Amino acid sequence: MRIGIAYSLKPDDQGRLDGPDDLDEEFDTSETIDAIAEVIRGDGHDVLLLGDGRPFLAKVSADPPDFVFNMAEGEGASRNRESRVPAVCELLSIPYSGSDPLTLAATLDKPVAKRLVQDLPDFHVPKGLTLGPETSRTGLDRLLTQVFDFDWFQYPLILKPAFEGSSKGIRAGGLVETVDEAVNLFDRLARDYHQPILIEEFIDGDEVTVGVLGNGPAAEVLGIMRILPREPTERFVYSLDVKRDWQRLVRYEAPARLPESVIDRIKTAALGAFEALGCLDLARIDFRVRDGVPYFIEANPLPGLSPVTGDLVILAKGHGTSHNDLIRRILHESLTRVALLPAEPVAF
């Protein structure tokens, strides 16, 4: 089978003059792309490297592959940027891995994703509000003062761009304790990311992420991983600064050592979110757990698959699944769903 890989390549020069230094944070390195291509070739397929954007469009239009393994994040600040590759594939009737354009857009838009899952039984989301980047300092100051006067929020708050992944925009100092701090951080994020900003109550508890693989009733939790600071800290935030220095700053606990009742609640919440958001083949679902209650933070149906730094990959390894076997399983789930493989159980 001829399988094309769609990907967004991280530039060699990470210095940016046109914005913050994390604008390309979600993109993959050539080492990650090569590693995944090698796994797919090892299963007997021919691999085509398609890239993203106009090069992708030109290649699939001129010489369509049988199937596209989609890792492309898309450029810019649009909440639809992750939807472009699957939208083109659907236009050209090319089957592809992972979720469809609607799910990729809805999950990249954090406020929309929260609205889609918040009415599930026994489901919890942090309180929050989303404001456009044009919101004035005076207007934001007045609104936040009113919010706290009515005791709807409690400090600290966390602010983040509404349409980003990979902790983009979430840096050291991302927690705020006063209206003035919130206004100043909002200004910076709105200026840097040119999109709405989510202002949310900070859930003080465990950071956990859940891997989900499969489709429909057969979707299952691959495992749960807890992310812990190596040094005790009063309020741990899995920020971009921490992710960039993960070997020194964090410890990945997979399987997560949490009470069985909490594990069950997390699994139920993850599978419920996976279904409600329309995820296909794979996703990573993030929660904060406070007093045994998981609070949904976001869903990532296009998770990073770096053999070294991908959270889903680290989670899988902790549960006995190698990077190669994880890629093979994702590929098998995808090819089976689109009927390019028979629906037969395969051992990985």
Summarize this structure as a short list of keywords or feature phrases.
348 residues; alpha+beta; five-stranded antiparallel beta sheet; four-stranded antiparallel beta sheet; globular
Task: Give a structural overview.
The chain is an alpha+beta fold. The protein has twelve helices and twelve strands. The chain has helices at about 30-40, 55-60, 85-90, 100-110, 110-115, 135-150, 180-195, 240-245, 245-250, 260-275, 310-320, 325-335, and strands at about 1-5, 45-50, 65-70, 130, 155-160, 175, 195-200, 205-215, 220-230, 250-255, 280-290, 295-300. The protein has a five-stranded antiparallel beta sheet, with helices on both faces. Strands 4-7-5-6 form a four-stranded antiparallel beta sheet, with helices on one face. The protein has a three-stranded parallel beta sheet with strand order 2-1-3, with helices on both faces. α6 (about 135-150) packs across α7 (about 180-195). The longest helix has 17 residues, at about 260-275. The protein is globular, with a radius of gyration of 20 Å. The model has no long low-confidence stretch (mean pLDDT about 90).
